[in-house]
């Protein structure tokens, strides 16, 4: 499937955590693809493995207990999993950078924000301190913070401002790929709107690709080109935004969408997905969703269904994908 | 608003200030509203707008600085300790964080039984009766009986929130303050809890005050909505009216910022300038002033208050009626 | 939709309280378990010697533990006396065993005194805050400003050397440490939502403190107690060493060490053995304390 437009391709990535309570099968053969300048949104609930995937791409899985069991992470054709730690460090921040969920804890409280932006710039570019300082100030202005505030410390900023600083750090070296792990979850809606708007603007300017991880189907609809729905460490539905949102095939995707209270229509009762996500140390043998699925048959419980193409780039991991339900 | 319905709770001029090292924090400033029996009042606002403090002030978990709270016609702020303890049976609260709101040392059944023992509805002697009641409550909120002896840390967020609801219900209250009861939960679990709360309301005739930052949840759930900004009420209306015709610039911006899960939905975000200002020693007048695209000098009028713009629809804005203030930019 | 629609998870529902969880983690720490076993042995010895004294009507104590036998003084270890004889010809092994109870029990009692008093003060300060907190904690600061050993010496010097005075002296000198620990841990717990929930159902202060706050604030207090006992034993040994604690001929490690030190060049065993006794006990208590800290820290929970 990979063509010359593909920036990142993850193939069959399997990641496990070995804990006291057993082996947590966090990621079970996930394959994704991100094209240059495009945004892929990964949607799923807590514990689905979204963050593990993001950290896996950057090889930031804490080990032990984490372990990348198998798979490939091809960035520009190179397998990141085969690089040395030294080479990997050059990738992080320069080629691929990451925005974390919690703006309150992802900045160093004892460094000024300008110094924190400069640090990344100096790490990856052979330029003088003066130039780096100038670039840092430019970045601050770019994210809408007056450069004069650069000498302030993170605690002097509000949550939304901190997230802007984090975005400035992430984009300071003009990476080709930005991984954003729930970048707006900790923010209020009006601030979320500002931050999403900013990310979108900068992305277009530099033609950056983005992997956006979120649990909010609304945010995805407003920002992404492609969508992957993650459930229990697997992608269960994948396609362009339109394909997935306008023609949902997987019962989990449908359930997820139906359980959000709708602003446009009025429903008296919400639909729910019954039950809970399976225990990742003890996953069902067949389809991971079979325990909660209304349509599940014995066949579903036997083996993990393959991804089925249902037209275009739209793939669904369900044996009933091509049937009308 | 609706004359034939019985009013259960009325709040008049409620204020709650905190003394902080930086000055006087106006967490809740001059709030007025009422809730009818069996209805739900949604309270919406962003972090720091005082919505949680207001919920706690009404229950006197934080003693209000000023104002009156009438419950079934009596001003409960005048109640003494023993009368207040009696009243706690009628007014309960469900908390936001199901991880922090349960005592980690108590099992599920102990947690649910605790309020009934504290209120002496049962004594240690009627253990059998008490256990029966606990089982009934667990069934009511959809908890399997086998979880009775589990500890909260062994359960997921959805089940914990069910325990929190069962605990609130155990005293057979009439009124429940729900402080962001679903915002810590995943969407599919959130829907389960919302449905449960709705069923309980229908069945037991409960009255809710539903505090949340999530506008879609509040729309789904409430009969009337109060929008708050930095301790002030900016708009109050029946749910339908508020969503159809938001008048206050803040409400408009808030509604426009919700991401709709539909790629074809035309996004028309009103991006507000700046960030929430501080509620410490606020300047007189509208607190939205600094971020409001329509702000003018008249907005600094210290006697700002709610005005009725259509039946049941109240707005606190000095510029109502000004043609510059668009009707509804998203309509 | 009134039933629990949650289908049974194959793992089943575990029912372990936080204490059971902590014990499970503690068991994994080998060093801490060795320390715990060592302490258990000490407790058995201490109780055992008391039982022996009662059964034999102090016969062994009077005739072997404290009775001098100058003919065999400073005899090195042998088959008959595995740890040798001391400067007055008494059996070192017996004296070591009989000394356990004073160190251990006095240490525990001293810490109980400071734990109860300090704990109460700290709890009141932490729960009520504001002025109460200020008054109590400033008083604790004053107490803390005096080195604890010096304070103990002063108390014993003023009121005379007696068992009760020594216990009180050490107990009082540890009060501020406990007050601080308890206050800090109460303050973190008291703002939890479940405490507010208890208040919302009309619980009174006593119920809230004893049922909701204290059980959840116990972890650091337990660790502090373990480490405190170690400190108290050391203090008792120290006081005895300078002659202000347990008086001879009652066997006590500190005083044994003190009277033996003149003979250290010729008969090393009578100094080293009580020294080792003190050292190992303190080490065991510290190792157990660290183990408890790790086991009780929910952040390390996996």
Short description:
The complex is a heterotrimer of chains A (325), B (331) and C (302). With 325 residues, chain A is α/β, with parallel strands linked by helices.
What does this structure look like?
- The complex is a heterotrimer of chains A (325), B (331) and C (302).
- Chain A is an alpha/beta fold.
- Chain A has helices at 50-57, 85-91, 113-124, 129-142, 159-171, 189-206, 217-223, 241-246, 251-258, 298-302; strands spanning 6-19, 22-35, 39-43, 66-75, 78-79, 96-99, 177-181, 209-214, 226-231, 234-240, 308-309, 315-316.
- Chain A is built from 10 helices and 12 strands.
- In chain A, strand 9 and strand 10 (234-240) form a beta hairpin.
- Chain B has helices spanning 51-58, 81-87, 108-118, 127-140, 157-169, 187-204, 215-221, 239-244, 249-257, and strands at 7-20, 23-36, 40-44, 66-71, 74-75, 91-94, 175-179, 207-212, 224-229, 232-238, 307-310, 313-315.
- In chain B, the strands form 2 sheets. Chain B has an 8-stranded mixed β-sheet, with helices on both faces. Chain B has a 4-stranded antiparallel β-sheet with strand order 2-1-4-5.
- The longest helix of chain B has 18 residues, at 187-204.
- The model of chain B has no long low-confidence stretch (mean pLDDT 87).
- Chain C is mostly helical and 302 residues long.
- Chain C has a single domain (23-48, 85-300), classed as MetI-like fold.
- Chain C has helices at residues 18-28, 30-55, 59-65, 92-128, 130-145, 148-159, 163-190, 193-200, 205-241, 253-260, 269-296.
- The longest helix of chain C has 37 residues, at 92-128.
- The relative contact order of chain C is 0.14.
- The chains are: A alpha/beta (325), B alpha/beta (331), C mainly alpha (302).
- Chains in contact: A-B, A-C, B-C.
- Biggest contact: A-B, 44 and 39 residues
* Main β-sheet, spatial strand arrangement of chain A: 6-7-8-3-9-10-12-11
Strand content of chain C: under 5%
Helix share of residues of chain A? 25-40%
């Amino acid at each position: 499937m990979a063509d010359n437009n593909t920036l990142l391709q993850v193939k069959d990535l399997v990641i496990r955590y070995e804990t006291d309570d057993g082996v947590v099968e966090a990621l079970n053969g996930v394959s994704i693809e991100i094209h240059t300048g495009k945004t892929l949104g990964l949607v799923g609930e807590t514990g689905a493995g979204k963050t593990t995937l993001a950290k896996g791409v950057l090889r930031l899985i804490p080990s032990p207990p984490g372990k990348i069991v198998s798979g490939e992470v091809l960035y520009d054709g190179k397998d990141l999993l085969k690089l040395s730690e030294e080479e990997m460090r050059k990738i992080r921040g320069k080629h691929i950078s990451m925005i974390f969920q919690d703006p309150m804890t992802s900045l160093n409280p004892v460094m000024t924000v300008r110094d924190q932006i400069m640090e990344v710039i100096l790490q990856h570019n052979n330029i003088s301190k003066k130039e780096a300082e100038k670039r840092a100030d430019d970045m601050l202005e770019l994210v809408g913070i007056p450069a004069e505030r650069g000498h302030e410390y993170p605690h002097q900023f509000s949550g939304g401002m901190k997230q802007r600083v984090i975005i400035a750090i992430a984009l300071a070296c003009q990476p080709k790929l930005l991984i954003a792990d729930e970048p707006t979850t900790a923010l209020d809606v009006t601030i979320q709107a500002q931050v999403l708007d900013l990310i979108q603007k900068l992305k277009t300017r530099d033609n950056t690709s983005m992997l956006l991880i979120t649990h909010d189907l609304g945010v995805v609809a407003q920002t992404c080109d492609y969508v992957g729905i993650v459930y229990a460490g697997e992608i269960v539905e994948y396609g362009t935004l339109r394909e997935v949102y306008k023609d949902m095939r997987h019962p989990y995707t449908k359930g997820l969408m139906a359980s959000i209270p709708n602003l446009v229509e009025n429903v008296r009762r919400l639909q729910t997905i019954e039950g809970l996500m399976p225990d990742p140390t003890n996953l069902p043998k067949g389809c991971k969703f079979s325990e909660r699925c209304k349509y599940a048959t014995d066949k579903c419980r036997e083996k993990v269904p393959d991804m089925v193409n249902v037209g275009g780039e739209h793939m669904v991991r369900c044996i009933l994908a091509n049937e009308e339900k | 608003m609706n004359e034939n319905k019985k009013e259960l709770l009325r709040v008049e001029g409620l204020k709650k200030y905190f003394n902080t090292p930086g000055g006087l924090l106006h967490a809740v400033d001059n709030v007025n509203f009422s809730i009818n029996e069996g209805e739900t009042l949604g309270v919406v606002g962003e972090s720091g707008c005082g919505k949680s403090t207001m919920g706690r002030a009404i229950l006197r978990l934080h003693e209000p600085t000023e104002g009156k709270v009438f419950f079934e016609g009596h001003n409960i702020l005048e109640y003494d300790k023993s009368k207040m303890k009696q009243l706690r049976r009628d007014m309960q609260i469900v908390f936001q964080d199901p991880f922090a709101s349960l005592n980690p040392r108590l099992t599920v059944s102990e947690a649910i039984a605790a309020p009934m023992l504290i209120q002496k509805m049962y004594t240690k002697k009627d253990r059998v009766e008490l256990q029966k009641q606990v089982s009934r409550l667990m069934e009511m909120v959809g908890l399997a009986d086998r979880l009775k002896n589990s500890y909260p840390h062994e359960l997921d967020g959805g089940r914990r929130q069910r325990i929190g609801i069962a605990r609130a219900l155990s005293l057979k209250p009439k009124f429940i303050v729900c402080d962001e009861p679903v915002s810590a939960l995943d969407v599919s679990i959130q829907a389960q809890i919302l449905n449960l709360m709705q069923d309980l309301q229908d069945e037991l005739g409960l009255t809710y005050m539903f505090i949340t930052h999530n506008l879609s949840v509040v729309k789904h759930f409430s009969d009337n909505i109060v929008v708050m900004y930095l301790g002030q009420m900016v708009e109050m209306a029946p749910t339908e009216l508020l969503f159809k015709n938001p008048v206050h610039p803040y409400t408009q911006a808030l509604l426009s910022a919700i991401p709709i899960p539909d790629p074809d939905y035309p996004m028309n975000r009103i991006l507000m300038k700046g960030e929430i200002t501080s509620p410490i020693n606020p300047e007189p007048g509208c607190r939205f002033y600094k971020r409001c695209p329509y702000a003018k000098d008249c907005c600094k009028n210290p006697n700002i208050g709610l005005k009725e713009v259509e039946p049941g629809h109240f707005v606190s804005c000095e510029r109502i009626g000004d043609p510059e203030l668009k009707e509804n930019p998203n309509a | 939709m009134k039933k629990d629609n949650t289908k049974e998870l194959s793992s089943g529902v575990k029912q372990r309280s936080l204490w059971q969880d902590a014990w499970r983690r503690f068991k994994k720490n080998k060093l801490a378990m060795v320390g715990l076993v060592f302490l258990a042995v000490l407790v058995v010895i201490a109780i055992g010697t008391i039982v022996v004294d009662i059964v034999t009507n102090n016969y062994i104590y009077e005739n072997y533990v404290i009775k001098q036998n100058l003919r065999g003084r400073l005899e090195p270890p042998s088959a008959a006396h595995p740890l040798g004889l001391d400067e007055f010809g008494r059996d070192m092994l017996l004296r070591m065993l009989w000394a356990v109870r004073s160190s251990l029990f006095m240490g525990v009692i001293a810490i109980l005194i400071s734990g109860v008093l300090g704990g109460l003060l700290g709890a009141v300060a932490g729960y009520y805050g504001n002025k109460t907190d200020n008054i109590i904690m400033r008083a604790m600061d004053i107490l803390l400003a005096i080195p604890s050993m010096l304070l103990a010496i002063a108390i014993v010097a003023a009121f005379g050397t007696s068992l009760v005075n020594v216990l009180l002296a050490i107990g009082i000198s540890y009060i501020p440490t406990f007050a601080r620990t308890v206050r800090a841990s109460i303050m973190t717990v008291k703002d939890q939502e479940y405490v507010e929930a208890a208040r919302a159902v009309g619980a009174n202060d006593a119920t809230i403190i004893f049922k909701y706050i204290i059980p959840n604030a116990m972890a650091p207090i337990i660790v502090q107690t373990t480490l405190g006992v170690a400190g108290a034993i050391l203090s008792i040994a120290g006081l005895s060493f300078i002659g202000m604690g347990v008086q001879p001929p009652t066997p006590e490690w500190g005083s044994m060490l003190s009277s033996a030190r003149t003979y250290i060049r010729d008969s090393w065993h009578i100094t080293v053995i009580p020294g080792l006794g003190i050292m190992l006990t303190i080490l065991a208590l510290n190792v157990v304390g660290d183990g408890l800290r790790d086991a009780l820290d929910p952040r390390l929970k996996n």
